[in-house]
Fold this protein.
Amino acid sequence: MIKVAVTGAAGRMGSGIVKKINEQEDMEVVAAIEMPDTPLAGKDAGEFAGIGPIGVEISDSKDLEETLKSSGAEVLVDFTIAPASAETIKRTAACGVNLIVGTTGFTEEQSKNNADEIKKNNVKSVITTNFSIGVNVFWKVLKDLTPILNDFDIEIIEAHHNQKQDAPSGTAMTAFEIISNQLGRNPEDIGVYGRKGHVGKRTPEEIGLHSIRGGDIVGDHTVLYVGDGERLEIKHQAHTRQVFISGVIRALRYVNSAEPGKVSTINDVLGI
Ligand SMILES: NC(=O)C1=CN([C@@H]2O[C@H](COP(=O)(O)OP(=O)(O)OC[C@H]3O[C@@H](n4cnc5c(N)ncnc54)[C@H](OP(=O)(O)O)[C@@H]3O)[C@@H](O)[C@H]2O)C=CC1
Ligand SMILES: O=C(O)C1=N[C@H](C(=O)O)C[C@H](O)C1
């Protein structure tokens, strides 16, 4: 049995992950953690997953080390918010517990610190901005396509629900990194985040990133390659969070065979 701790256990992703783990025969939720001073402490995590009591009380992230130790958790799954997640990664790795992280919106410095903590403590990890299989194929297509269409204008559009806190989405930022790398350009120099006012003509080098927020959109990502007289659009749409949750379940089965001290990605999990 894989013993799993879940942070953000009452959130959209966290509660779905608790529910899905509860349906598996080879894994169990042993700890469910929410934010510091959470009013949810002591309530059963199953309540938020819509499955009734599972015998795991929500605990306060201030008690993380104690919770990990007393529950015997082998791996922690984190879908929260970047600053909180960075702190959780540091404390969890120091406890020798493996990590699966889907939280997005890390600064470059936070991402580097996350990798350093994983290396320093020699724990196993899977960190990725999108756990769906479709998006991983989408990223692969961008990698293959960009060198062929390297003189086309490239723009990225993402759309998400009105509760999302970070922009552009982690998935869009990963797409931007892939495209920039393939073009041999520094992402720092070429990203244009929305346009307003007399911004002048588009330069051939720049890549625009545009974020739409509304209602209950689960997650749409489109990359446009626009030439003279034609354009190609590569689009992925998530219809349900189940696509991310299924990827997390695969990552839970994979993580123990991951290389210690390294940040593995969903590509390692899927072998693509
Ligand atoms: N990689 C992927 O495939 C995917 C990534 N995501 C990312 O996952 C993250 C979460 O998304 P979502 O579930 O929609 O967000 P939610 O806001 O629904 O859930 C986040 C949860 O984390 C809780 N939380 C905040 N701080 C802490 C802390 N220090 N310790 C424990 N829990 C904490 C929040 O509590 P409170 O509400 O009280 O603040 C909330 O319950 C986002 O960064 C999102 O972009 C989402 C989907 C897929
Ligand atoms: O916040 C979300 O909901 C999502 N976040 C991830 C991101 O920022 O890319 C993945 C997915 O698009 C849903």
